[in-house]
Design a protein that fits this description.
GO terms for molecular function: metal ion binding; metalloendopeptidase activity. By secondary structure, the chain is an alpha+beta fold. It has 39 helices and 23 strands.
Length: 981
Amino acid sequence: MPENFQAFMNSRIPIFAIGILFLHLISCKPMIKEEKQYPYTTTQGDSLHTRIYTLKNGLTVFMSPYRDEPRIYTSIAVRAGSKNDPAETTGLAHYLEHMLFKGTDAIGSLDYEKERTELDKITELYEEYRSTSDLDKRAAIYRDIDSISNVAASFTVPNEYDKLLNSIGAQGTNAYTWVEQTVYVNDIPSNKFDQWLTIEAERFRNPVMRLFHTELETVYEEKNMTMDSDSRKIWENLFAGLFKKHTYGTQTTIGKAEHLKNPSIKNVIDYYRTYYVPNNMALCIAGDFDPDETIKLIDRKFSVLQPKEIPHFTPAVEEEIKKPTVIKAKGPEAEELVIGYRFNGINSSDADYLTLLDKILYNQTAGLIDLNLNQQQKVLDAGSMLVMMKDYSAHILSGKPREEQSLDQVRALLLEQIELLKEGKFPDWMLEAAINDLKLEQLKLYESNRGRVEAYVDAFIWGMPWPEHVSQIERLEKITKADLVAFATKHYRDNYVTVYKEHGKAKSEKKIQKPPITPLKVNRDTSSPFAEKLLAEKSAKTEPVFLDYRKDITFEDVNPSIKLHYLQNLENELFSLYYVFDVGKNHSRKINLALDYLSYLGTSTLTPRAFSQELYKIGASFTAFTADNYVYLKLSGLGKNAPAAIRLLETLLVDAKPDEEALENLKAGELKERADDKLSKKKILFEAMTNYGKYGSTSPFTNVLSDEELGKVTSTELLSELHDLLQYQHRVLYYGPAKAQEVLAELRSVRHYPASFKTPPVSDPYPELEQQDNQVYVVDYDMTQAEVIMLTRDELYDPLQVPLATFFNEYYGGGMSSVVFQELREAKALAYSVFSVYRAPKQKEKHNYMVSYIGTQADKLPEALEGISHLMNDLPKSPELFASAQNGILQKISTERLTRTEVLFNYEDAVRMGHSHDIRKDIYREAATITLKDIEAFHKKHLRNKNHVMLVLGKKGNLDMATLQKYGTVKELKLKDIFGY
């Protein structure tokens, strides 16, 4: 639970006491140095008990002590994003974000004086390169850049920043750039906070632009990847239409291809010096720490950063949009439409009205779009969202068409919901329910340290005083329905921009071609003096805490066939309840359709619309999730209303009334979604092709009703499917404020249970294929990149192998400091995204798989495949990397605390995988004794010279088929082969 800290002003020494103390001090020798004071502000009513400090150099520090586990979530936010990019070098803020991982003259440096000599040459060569148009001369300059970069790299330790963070047990090390911010995130053990501060203060002190040309190639890969994204096309076109003058719309975060091709290291350094100053930065933390001691540490470490005047950003003033603008874009994925309205920024009064209006339009249960469009199946899928920014904001409506429905028709339906807003045609109670929904969202957000820190980052970037952030709900409660209607009437007119994203061949920027890059030498077995000193520092040891299922979970019988797994929520008023069945899509091809059908039905006393409204009134939500071998039905919301929510759900489960029109619409929608899935490259590669690689043409993925079977399905069959589900043995998971006996009493009272239950099936109808020969399956798709997954089937799952497999993944291919990442991204710049992990199945008696993925330019595919294959057959050995992986695993586990529903689901996983205890205990115990030779032996046994299935998605004309034939028998697959329909 958060602690209630008293404000500094209430704890100061009284004035008369200060006078006495002063007289005493001057009479003493030697004089006692007065301890430095750190005044801070707090906000009344703030549930996070936030302290906000401003240090002497201008650095803002947000703190929320929250001791649910011995870890601290951190974000360092810089008020500079793509809107601050110079027009002639867009993408600069994003590129600098990448470079902040490359180290400094201390981090990652073996001999900076020698390195700097070479880096200065590279800087000047890039200036010459960008001012040269002759292609032959540019090629010659680039060869010099490549050659000198290899010399410079010999004086560095690539990725040392990531190694350091991994060694101290950090998780989620990453960063992101958007229009107004660049934010650097970490989740660290609290006993390593001192070391983390040392690393971060050094990181921002003097970043070195080393390994520039390979990282630039990584950004090229990211750019090429966005060219294959239809959602990116929608986003950029919408913002270009809404913001014709402001840099929100005139430039993009990743930048123009022509600018990325002609980079300037000088400009990157100038940008850093301009915006990366402490008075333009905030350090935001939440977790296990003492605020008084922590602020001293932060000040001591970060005082090295010097303040500087920040250029004032004057936002361009947009002209009023007086008539609808239509923008058309094309791409290979399914058609979609978005409508955007432009508003004033987050700190204007518009923001509060928009927050409520968006909830009334779409809340995933009872909003106007939910009930009028999604529940009535007038479109395939529709929704709304807010994009809140400092200078302007946007309210965005979206919709996907049904079969033979035009995008014009989707637009008309969405605009009808806006008209209903303007006419006030929504229930009076909706306003209060929307505010309660926002309160629930905030409670859920603030349950995590990450959620707390993200709120701080938003407030800082927006320049929003924290009291304004805290008092939002209070302001919303003062807004009336009449106020909302008046606002909607005034602001929602023909002043919108519509993007029609049609299916077809896209007009795109020309992809960035591969330059010749000599692989860099990776100095794995060296460390900088900075790293050696930091890692030698001792810190207090944190002992791990493992789950004891019999102590941490209360097990009760609802009846002899239904178990309750109970954990009480002593933190807030939220509850989550799950019905879990050990039957799934593998056992019934209709269960998924039946549960979808349920969402469109009512009961004998409640229409579908009324049911959704009743659920929303009491602050509850219901979702269903189906997997191959199990089904989850989930209820969540306010604990005090859990009994009412359970009764509503139970009534629906046993008293759902058929609706033939809804069923016919559902069938038609299912057919359209199937067609759309065949256009989604994510669906094609990660689901359809992956299942084909494991199982062949008949797999869990293809286990669906045929079009003909779907057309014949009746309401009676689907309702029987739901009633049949309730006849199976199942269990109830509950986390909430109610006592166990109260939950049991409620569950026992709401349903007439059968005298006996069906036992879930044990047999698995889909055996995995044994890989006799190397196979390469290719699917043709119109895209810039090529994406590859390599599957290698291994032994059956064995819990005894889990510790070594976990360690192997940490060392080999699971993170940014791993062998695979260093070799293929850092040294060779072959991909933006790459990983290779030994993956366990989701249930026992299934096989482990080695899964490798790389997304790369089609012209780099030969080098990328060679790189992956080489690593699978020849493991690079690094004692330094091994030690980092070992320290990381031990630190992460010792400071990890499973809480809330994590406890219940950890037990679920343990039962499914065939072990009766928290397996993290085994990993922690054995990780301390595993050696590098053990890692080598694991690699040799499970990876080397193994048969594989390679799955390649890309534009066939761009793929080097001769290269692919080196890796197995090549077979081109059609979409029907992998989808089964």
